[in-house]
């Protein structure tokens, strides 16, 4: 790796789901944008991997063409050099289970965990890395706090497994973009938005159930942008079936449920956040590594209803203007009360989500109360959302976050130089 002023670039290999339509796909592309902001010091190579059953990005953009070009160039470089193909740094973007030594310096970049502890394997893999980057303080804190005691098989010596690798927190950056209007046939003027994958962690069944029970006779709607695995037609049919099961027996209600399923580009997502009939985003999540949809909604000025636990706390709280220099942070969202309880059995994931770990369980009464308050006291929540938006736009700039990320990778103090056709809308 060339030192400063040597004129030598750092040859970095990035392995991650760079083309995946997933949270880790977004994380991978954020990392590439950050590295690309310093192509004067980074010689970027890319090895793409899949992420579960999620689809791949199909949009033809300059960024996509650049990524494709880098993938082809990396493949050629490795074919031409064979075993002698070498890199100064590896950046591995995935859950820690898959981290390995690929270069003299190895950096693990993960969303971390949404629970109260990480698996022993994660600590072992973390200790293989030279540096780690995580997306939130929650993730860092859980890595730092997790430990396991045991006995060496041969020496019988008592041992404690902890994370020994230095961890840097780098939040996502705001991506300002013009909104592309999205046509939604909404019956009412006041609607909530929920954006989440349909899985145990996101608590969507309770979100729908509690929404209907609170708004059974109210002229209000809930727009759910979700999928189970990907944006295929089969997945849409399965997702629709899951929603129908969640609302079974509630056909006489006045409130409305809408399902959005399919591809939306960044401009269309912005158009969804800024839709005049979308008034707030809601989440009854059990935990977030960061909470990207909540973050995007917040920097678009949309009021947020969510529990104040896990990754989203990094951007839903801001310094209290009445207590300057005190370090006190003020919640600028409608916070849902919660309990920390053991993760339910159906969410256990061997080597990832420990059976003995815990996460947040939002309280039903608090969730319903916040829905009611958002509708009846909207001006108050919108005022706070506008203040939060202003703070986020100032503190989470691409310049700041890209600089922080590059420093986390290179371990040095460097300075930055300056409804579309394929989206199916369903009303229930």
Short overview:
With 428 residues, the chain is α/β, with parallel strands linked by helices.
What is the strand and helix layout of this fold?
Blueprint: E1 10-16, H1 23-36, E2 42-48, H2 62-81, E3 89-93, E4 105-110, H3 120-126, E5 131-134, H4 137-145, E6 148-151, E7 158-161, E8 167-169, E9 191-195, H5 204-215, E10 221-225, H6 233-246, E11 256-262, H7 266-273, E12 278-282, H8 292-299, E13 304-307, H9 313-316, E14 317-319, E15 329-331, E16 334-336, E17 338-342, E18 358-362, H10 364-376, H11 378-395, H12 398-410, E19 423-427
Parallel strand pairs: 1-2, 1-3, 3-4, 4-5, 5-8, 9-10, 9-12, 10-11, 12-13, 13-16
Antiparallel strand pairs: 6-7, 11-19, 14-15, 17-18
Describe the structure.
The chain is an alpha/beta fold. Helix content is about 35%, strand content about 20%. It contains 12 helices and 19 strands. The chain has helices at about 25-35, 60-80, 120-125, 135-145, 205-215, 235-245, 265-275, 290-300, 315, 365-375, 380-395, 400-410, and strands spanning about 10-15, 40-50, 90-95, 105-110, 130-135, 150, 160, 165-170, 190-195, 220-225, 255-260, 280, 305, 315-320, 330, 335, 340, 360, 425. A 7-stranded mixed beta sheet has the order 16-13-12-9-10-11-19, sandwiched between helices. It has a 6-stranded parallel beta sheet with strand order 2-1-3-4-5-8. Strands 6-7 form a two-stranded antiparallel ribbon. Strand 10, helix 6 (about 235-245) and strand 11 (about 255-260) form a beta-alpha-beta unit. It is globular, with a radius of gyration of 22 Å. It starts with 9 loop residues before the first strand and ends with a strand. The model is unreliable at about 1-5 and about 415-420 (pLDDT under 50).
């Amino acid at each position: 790796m060339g030192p400063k002023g040597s004129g030598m670039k750092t040859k970095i290999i990035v392995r991650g789901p760079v083309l995946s339509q997933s949270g880790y796909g977004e994380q991978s592309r954020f990392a590439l944008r950050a590295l690309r902001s310093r192509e004067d010091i980074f010689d970027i190579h890319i090895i793409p991997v899949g992420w579960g059953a999620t689809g791949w990005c199909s949009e033809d953009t300059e960024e996509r063409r650049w990524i494709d070009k880098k993938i082809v160039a990396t493949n050629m470089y490795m074919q031409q050099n064979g075993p002698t193909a070498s890199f100064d740094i590896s950046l591995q973007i995935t859950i820690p289970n898959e981290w390995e030594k690929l270069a003299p310096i190895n950096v693990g970049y993960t969303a971390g965990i949404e629970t109260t502890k990480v698996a022993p394997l994660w600590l072992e893999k973390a200790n293989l890395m030279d540096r780690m980057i995580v997306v939130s303080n929650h993730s860092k804190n859980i890595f730092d706090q997790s430990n396991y005691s045991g006995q060496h098989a041969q020496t019988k010596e008592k041992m404690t497994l902890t994370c020994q690798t230095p961890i840097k927190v780098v939040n996502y950056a705001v991506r300002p973009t013009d909104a592309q209007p999205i046509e939604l046939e909404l019956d009412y003027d006041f609607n909530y938005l929920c954006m989440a994958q349909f899985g145990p962690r996101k608590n969507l069944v309770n979100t729908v159930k509690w929404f209907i029970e609170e708004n059974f006779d109210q002229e209000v709607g809930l727009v759910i942008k979700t999928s189970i695995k990907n944006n295929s037609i089969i997945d849409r049919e399965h997702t629709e079936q899951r929603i129908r099961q969640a609302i079974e027996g509630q056909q006489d209600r006045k409130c409305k449920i809408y399902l959005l399923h399919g591809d939306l580009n960044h401009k269309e997502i912005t158009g969804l956040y800024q839709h005049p009939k979308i008034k707030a985003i809601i989440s009854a999540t059990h935990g977030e590594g960061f909470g990207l949809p909540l973050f995007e909604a917040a920097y678009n000025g949309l009021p947020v209803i969510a529990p104040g636990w896990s990754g989203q706390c990094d951007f839903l709280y801001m310094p209290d203007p009445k207590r300057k220099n005190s370090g006190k942070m003020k919640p600028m969202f409608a916070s849902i009360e919660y309990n920390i309880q053991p993760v339910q059995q159906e969410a256990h994931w061997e080597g990832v989500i420990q059976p003995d770990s815990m996460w947040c369980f939002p309280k039903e009464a608090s969730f319903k109360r916040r829905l009611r308050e958002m509708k009846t006291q909207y001006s108050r929540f919108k005022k706070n959302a506008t203040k939060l938006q202003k703070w986020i736009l100032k503190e989470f700039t691409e310049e700041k976050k890209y600089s922080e990320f590059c420093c986390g990778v290179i371990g040095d103090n460097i300075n930055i130089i300056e409804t579309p056709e394929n989206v199916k809308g369903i009303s229930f």
